[in-house]
Specification:
Elements lengths: L8 H7 L17 H4 L6 E5 L5 H9 L4 E5 L3 H14 L4 E4 L6 H4 L5 E7 L17 H10 E11 L2 H13 L2 E7 L15 H8 L5 E7 L3
């Protein structure tokens, strides 16, 4: 779905510029997370942070963890950065760019958790490699995870979820807490809902979830 250009978008983006990490899609720069987040030793990332409800609440609940929020659509990430700025959270920074560049920007083993919430399902078979839970992307993300690291994935799209159930093992992940109706499960109490999740759950869509841990060799 095309995002309508935001009124005063440039000014709103600049007002939160202290929360953005400079991103050059042609020559992504290696990040030193310890310099970006002085005093932090635990790092996580959300791929596709949308309007930021999830990352803002996650950062509030985990003040000892630093979070990278990745979103390629500038007029969407504006909302997320404004939420974080208003909440005065020191432990969130944004990358307005493509997730494929993360392998060039983040050291291997630097992240303890990667969250993928309601990514584009790319329903056509010829676009399968573009799905963030395809073997190719998962293999990229796996390198960024610590030895005990994991990916937490949620989607309302059952086709994408069933596809992902096959891709995670192929990429070397062990799946746990596989759930086809998150909101009716014991995991619901600790679940942080995204804006998208609230809307589609209210319409009767079931939320699917899994955790993928790096398989032990």
């Amino acid at each position: 779905m095309r995002v309508r250009k935001k009124k005063n978008g440039d000014a709103r983006f600049d007002a939160c510029k202290d929360l953005y990490i400079e991103f050059d899609k042609n020559e992504p720069q290696k990040l030193n997370l310890s310099e970006i987040f002085p005093g932090y030793t635990h790092f996580r990332a959300e791929i596709g942070c949308g309007k930021g409800t999830f990352i803002t609440e996650m950062a509030k609940r985990n003040p000892d963890v630093a979070f990278l929020a990745v979103e390629k659509v500038r007029d969407v990430v504006i909302f997320a950065s404004e939420k974080v700025k208003e909440a005065e959270l020191p432990n969130v920074r944004f990358i307005c760019g493509d997730a494929a560049a993360l392998s060039a920007m983040i050291d291997e083993g630097a992240l303890e958790t990667i969250y993928i919430n309601f990514c584009d399902p790319w329903p056509k078979a010829r676009h399968a490699k573009r799905r963030l839970t395809s073997e190719g992307f998962l293999s990229l993300f796996k390198k960024l995870l610590s030895d005990d690291g994991k990916i937490e994935f949620k989607t309302d799209n059952i086709g994408l979820f069933e596809f992902s159930l096959e891709e995670f093992p192929k990429a070397g992940f062990e799946m746990r807490n596989v759930c086809f109706d998150l909101h009716a499960s014991e995991l619901a109490e600790s679940n942080i809902q995204t804006e998208y999740e609230r809307n589609f759950s209210a319409k009767g869509f079931k939320i699917n979830r899994l955790e993928g841990f790096k398989a032990k060799n």
